[in-house]
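Sequence in, structure out. Go.
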Amino acid sequence: MGLVFNPIGLAVNVIVGVIVVSPVLWLAGRAMAGKEKAKFTDAVWIVALGIIIGSMLGVFVHGLLGFVASLILWLGLIRHFFDTGWLKALVIAVVALVVFAIIAAVLTFMGLLVLSRFI
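Output:
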């Protein structure tokens, strides 16, 4: 069986990723790199390119090597678009991940509260 390219799935992935991840990445970038360097459009480009290139990369590279390659890809995109060094790019990525996890936990808790009223 050959490699299958699903352009609709990739487009949906990019759109959802941009809507969900870009604001969090932008906020983390503004906090760490400053508002002059971290523009919202940069965060959108980081997420869109990260998903597209990462999807293509994931077809060929798997496992631990794939994880390391994806990590370097995302850090490189953050470094380039937010005009920072590698360490600050890593810090921005970690801060964005923590903020995203907190938002997801709060939304999950709120959803469970709402559902508990109907059960």
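Check: The chain has a mean pLDDT of 92. DSSP finds four helices and no strands in the chain.
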